[in-house]
Fold this protein.
Amino acid sequence: MTRSESAASGAADEAGERGAAGVGWAQVVAAEPEFAARVQERFGAYAHHVLGTLRADGSPRLTGLEADFRHGELWLGMMTGSRKALDLHRDPRFALHTNPGPGTDMAGGDIRISGRAAEVREAEVLRRYAHAVRPPEPFLLFRAEVTEVVRTSVTDPYLVLESWRPGRPLRTVRRTSVEASPEAV
């Protein structure tokens, strides 16, 4: 195994993806409906969010993106030939982070969704999406295969971390700045 292959393998392990298959957004909703609703509400607060992809050399690329929840899926739409599209064709792993909004109050929480992006090629799905969203054409559409959702919020005096992965229950950790270790609940 080459060093870059080993690094790529290790990165997937470190991301907690050890071969775990991603799931469609409908499965997140079915498993944790209240959590999923908070996530969708927070993404709905702003149109533009931040997408993290991996460049050919393995370094991260952050770009703006409009994420869209519709028909039980999380969709990632983008221009053909964009750098983020090229990244996702080469390595489908991504992290999508909510727009932080103004100020520092973390209203609605700070949310990251990780997974793999699967390009949509079905003509009917593309037509239905284009009819509903009216993106600039031509465009590429990816369906998110979710491997992790993390929501960070503040409930005084705690920093609250909620995380969900397919096949596992929602995990909540509350931390304070004076605690040596987090308290899992």
In short: The first helix runs from residue 3 to 14. The chain has one domain: 19-149. The radius of gyration is 17 Å.
